[in-house]
């Protein structure tokens, strides 16, 4: 099973990614984890990415795509994977499509978790109180949701056109949401 998990901050992607990874016995691939691993390994790609990160800039798509290319060819990805945090933009999605074609792979589904903006704000403020995360304050939360809306939300339309998208309500009990996702994936596949 090869999946992408999309959704705004606070919708529960991390929780659901772990549950889907376990359910399908696949690897959970987070872009942040891959970047950190490349940097820790001192690879050329990691060093190159670090130069952008040190300047407070986003790592360019070509570097991210090359990291994904190398990671998706690792033995633990043969049985499938769940991409979390990638792609974030249309150019990244197009690059991923080309990369998967070159690897003779295809996605099975793209899961977009949805939730009302006010519910997301409520969840993130609560998380900020319990976790101590400094980025979970009202001004930053609104900014992060706006960035998601303008940069990542277009991916929903992109993947809708491919016939791979399933939208799942991210509100409810965690097991209930997981079951909705699994049913949506299995109905598509």
Question: Would you kindly provide a written description of the structure presented here, covering whatever features stand out?
Answer:
The chain is an alpha/beta fold and 189 residues long. The protein has one domain: 3-Layer(aba) Sandwich (Rossmann fold), CATH 3.40.50. 60% of the residues lie in helices and 13% in strands. The chain is built from 9 helices and 5 strands, in the order βαβαααβαβαααβα. Strands 2-3-1-4-5 form a 5-stranded parallel sheet. Helix 2 crosses helix 3. The relative contact order is 0.19. The model has no long low-confidence stretch (mean pLDDT 93).
SSE blueprint and pairings:
Layout: E1 2-6, H1 13-24, E2 27-30, H2 31-41, H3 44-54, H4 61-72, E3 81-84, H5 90-102, E4 109-114, H6 117-131, H7 138-152, H8 154-162, E5 165-169, H9 174-188
Parallel strand pairs: 1-3, 1-4, 2-3, 4-5
Helix pairs in contact: 1-9, 2-3, 2-4, 4-5, 6-7
Question: What labels would you give this structure?
Answer:
189 residues; alpha/beta; 5-stranded parallel sheet; 5 strands; 13% strand
CATH class: Alpha Beta
Principal-axes shape call: globular
Class per helix and strand makeup:
alpha/beta
Q: How many structural domains in the coordinates? A: 1
Mean pLDDT: 93
Quick one: CATH superfamily?
A: P-loop containing nucleotide triphosphate hydrolases
H-E string: EHEHHHEHEHHHEH
What's this model, at a glance?
This protein has 189 residues and is an alpha/beta fold.
